[in-house]
Design a protein that fits this description.
Order of helices and strands: HHHH
Radius of gyration: 11 Å
Number of domains: 1
Distance between the termini: 23 Å
Largest sheet: none
Helix content: over 70%
Number of helices: 4
Strand content: under 5%
Length: about 55
């Protein structure tokens, strides 16, 4: 995903509730490994179990 679109996604991700964050993380196409990592750093660590469940 290009830089400007990713910056928009990060803003949306930052404002989203946990369910929306999971959906954005799981359903956004064309992210690079580094972009996934950056979003993961913004995701609350206490809720990683929900993200893990969504990925399986």
């Amino acid at each position: 995903m290009d830089y400007s679109k990713f910056e928009q996604l990060k803003k949306k991700f930052a404002k989203a509730n946990t369910d929306e964050k999971v959906s954005l993380y799981v359903n956004t196409p064309d992210l690079t490994k580094d972009q996934y990592r950056e979003l993961l750093e913004m995701y609350p660590k206490s809720e990683w179990n929900l993200l893990d469940q969504a990925l399986w």
